[in-house]
Write a structure and sequence with these properties.
Glycosyltransferase; 18 helices; alpha+beta; globular; five-stranded antiparallel β-sheet; 2 domains; Beta-galactosidase, Chain A, domain 5
């Protein structure tokens, strides 16, 4: 068999399953998804797939939002047609999967190449056996192109064989504008978006192309007398195009399909593999001594690389990326806090595009702030295509009752989170063009919002009342430490941006606040309530938190449902039980906010109170634990975070992978175990590797440079090589070093 049709045998680069479990099929389809930031295809087995009633959608197109038939009535991503369906039948009877063969329904995700493979035996009673191998991908080289290859070898038997190739979900929730053989166009009901699809199929039997019967616009079939030893190869090319400017996406898709066919499948796969190789060269992390950690990191980096599209600044990355329908493709704080660190340090073009999405939706943030009577810009908690707030007012709770959703009104920390991501991007890239065009305006408008949102009161302090922090078990609270400290940081950052504009970015001078406004910002930042008690060294998570009921979570170890279900919403809200990292998240994002001893005090207090009711929580704990010199505890958090999507755990991932948790796996390794932090003039490294990690190797980008970092536990040495770029200053464990081309830095670590 052609080597291109076989996955790698290197276990460090594959996610594999050797059996089939119908009950877990939807979750595994999420895990085995392939994506390129524009198209996402769930990891379905296309050949004679299980009949489960109506075939669910398996393909998602970034930015294809609509409001039609939505319940609740908020915009959501619209599924595109499923293009992987293949049916094989003998004398009119569908072949069945062999139940005892070792390769029965084997499925392999080759993360190095970004390709999903299947291998199975199909039979007709005992008289006919056929081996079916397939692959599918969405090109990282040409993001609108998908390719499916299938090869069938008849092991024994003969008879009339029928092979049908079709598309499911052609009656997608869109308006059909054109439906012709191999070409279709749809438009949305409520947005300017249109979708175009073009497809072509080629079948060869023993190397000779066979003419197809066209059974419908996107249905092809072949029938012939099969015999033992015969080899059948199917090639399916698809092009999917989204347009927002009135251009005909069907014609564009048809032209792109023709180009792909002319190149041929070998050329398409080669270009796709070259693109993936470039991404791995820029982003791979190598862990020696801990295969589970290595597997977790490769799985996370694979999905992170497949989630972004640097060529489209009109879209962002949803909570489930392009792997499932949960949260309707909406964008949360996840993108800026959990995903941007990866892109900023390994793929700055992708980070820039994601931040441009926030700049493009800045007017919507201004509208939201104004509607509430505040100045500046307040970003939506859930954002879709326009950036307007799309959080539903109610959802169905775990007990099947309707629950009011207050996040869209109260979870306002996302505004500072966006500004934080912009600033981190600036520290890592020194991208003056982006800052002049977009970054400065985002930070200034969000600072303006917080200065108006934090209201002065008779006690001489400014307070932010009626919010929800990252810990969503407690609603309508006052002075949430995370929110207030991030707001304070955002205002101070706005003041720093004003200075930066005056000194280095004259193109952004039109944005400069006047001196009176800057003075008001300084006063606001200096008087915001912080919740910090110097006597104990603790941040109170929100006003009155310390007085709430303490519940020992150790008494509920082994539970299979979230704590708010165990205790009930009311008792949970009246307790100190934390859903996810809140003060701990603050320690992660602002490591200079307090002394290391105070950080340790806060971590020791809040970690036992955290129920980890969110997939985002443990990654934050891993990062902070590593920084505090607790690598063994950090590794436990790290592996629990990785297991959410990678292992057969209690978490159901039918609705898509938890892309932010995977981002957390990466940043807990890089910012936690490698101890990397960003300063305005340098990178800092202070490693704290887990005992099982013999060494850690990673590559990052900083200010247009590429650096290779190696940390060796046995020798207690850290080395850094400058792969490209000019001489720079690097800080290792508090000591400054000069890093120059051809002159690696080596330093001892604690």
């Amino acid at each position: 068999m052609d080597k291109m049709l076989i996955p790698t045998t290197d276990a460090d680069w594959v996610i594999a399953e050797q059996h089939c479990d119908q009950l877990r099929e939807s979750s595994r389809e999420s895990r085995f998804s392939v994506s390129n930031g524009f198209l996402g295809v769930r990891g379905t087995r296309g050949i004679n797939r299980f009949s489960r009633g109506q075939v669910p959608p398996h393909t998602w197109v970034a930015g294809l939002f609509d409001l039609h038939d939505a319940d609740p009535p908020v915009p959501g991503l619209v599924p595109a047609p499923d293009w992987l369906s293949i049916t094989v039948a003998l004398r009119g009877e569908k072949l069945a999967y062999h139940r005892t063969r070792t390769r029965q329904r084997c499925r392999v995700l080759d993360v190095r190449r970004g390709i999903m493979f299947t291998d199975a035996t199909l039979t007709h009673r005992a008289s006919f056996s056929l081996r079916a191998r397939s692959l599918h991908l969405v090109s990282l080289d040409d993001r609108c192109i998908g390719l499916q290859l299938a090869q069938f070898t008849i092991e024994h038997g003969e008879g009339e064989l029928t092979l049908q190739v079709g598309f499911a979900n052609l009656d997608t929730d869109l308006i059909t504008r054109r439906m012709e053989p191999g070409v279709a166009t749809w438009s949305t009901y409520t947005t300017p978006s249109q979708l175009g699809l073009a497809a072509a199929v080629v079948l060869e039997v023993d190397g000779r192309e066979q003419k197809a019967a066209q059974d419908g616009p996107f249905e092809w079939s072949w029938r012939w007398n099969a015999r033992s030893g015969q080899t059948i190869r199917l090639q399916r090319y698809v092009a999917l195009v989204r347009t927002d400017d009135g251009a005909d996406p069907g014609e564009i898709a048809h032209a792109r399909l023709g180009t792909a066919q002319n190149r041929g499948w070998r050329s398409l796969i080669t270009a796709h593999e070259v693109a993936w190789a470039a991404r791995w060269q820029a982003s791979d992390i190598i862990v020696n001594g801990d295969p589970a950690a290595q597997r977790a990191l490769r799985f996370a980096i694979y999905h992170l690389n497949g989630a972004a599209n640097p060529g489209d600044p009109t879209v962002s990355i949803a909570a489930r990326a392009l792997t499932g329908s949960d949260y309707r493709g909406h964008v949360f704080w996840d993108t800026e806090i959990f995903l941007l660190p990866f892109y900023t340090l390994t793929w700055p073009d992708a980070a820039c595009a994601l931040l441009h999405y926030r700049f493009r939706t800045l007017d919507a943030a201004r509208r939201k702030a104004a509607a509430s009577g505040w100045k500046g810009a307040m970003y939506a908690w859930e954002s879709a295509d326009t950036g307007d707030e799309v959080t539903p007012d109610q959802v169905v709770g775990p007990d099947r009752t309707l629950v009011d959703v207050l996040c869209g009104h109260q979870e306002q920390h996302i505004t500072a989170d966006v500004a934080y991501a912009v600033w981190q991007y600036w520290l890592a890239t020194a991208d003056e063009a982006f800052m002049a065009e977009a970054g400065c305006e985002i930070i200034l408008e969000t600072a303006r919002f917080w200065a108006s949102r934090a209201l002065p009161e008779p006690d001489g302090r400014r307070h932010i009342r009626g919010v929800i922090g990252p810990d969503e078990y407690h609603e309508t609270i006052d002075d949430n430490a995370f929110t207030n400290q991030m707001a304070r940081w955002n205002i101070l950052c706005g003041i720093e941006i004003a200075r930066l504009i005056s000194d280095r970015l004259p193109l952004a001078a039109r944005l400069l606040p006047d001196s009176a406004e800057l003075a008001a910002w300084a006063e606001a930042a200096s008087t915001i309530a912080t919740g910090f008690d110097p006597a104990t060294g603790l941040f109170e998570q929100f006003a009155g938190y310390f007085a709430r009921e303490h519940i020992d979570l150790a008494d509920y170890a082994g539970r299979s449902v979230p704590m708010d279900v165990v205790l009930g919403r009311d008792r949970t809200a009246a307790s100190q039980v934390v859903k996810q990292a809140d003060v701990v998240a603050l320690l992660a994002l602002q490591p200079d906010l307090c002394t290391p001893a105070q950080a340790a005090t806060n971590f020791a207090y809040y970690a036992p109170r955290c129920a980890h009711g969110s997939s985002l929580s443990r990654a934050m704990h891993a990062l902070v634990a590593a920084r505090l010199g607790q690598p063994a505890a950090a590794l436990s958090y790290f592996l629990h975070s990785a297991a959410i999507d990678l292992e057969e755990s209690r978490a159901a991932i039918d609705g898509g992978i938890h892309i932010a948790a995977l981002g957390g796996v990466w940043f807990s390794a890089v910012h936690g175990f490698a101890g990397l932090t960003l300063r305005p003039d340098r990178l800092c490294l202070s490693p704290s590797l887990p005992p099982s990690w013999h060494s850690l190797h990673l590559t990052i980008q900083w200010h247009g440079r590429s650096l290779a970092i190696a940390i060796d536990s046995a020798t207690r040495m850290l080395s850094v090589r400058l792969l490209s770029g000019e001489t720079m200053t690097l800080d290792i464990c508090g000591q400054a070093h000069r890093l120059a081309p051809g002159r690696p830095v080596q330093a001892g670590i604690a």
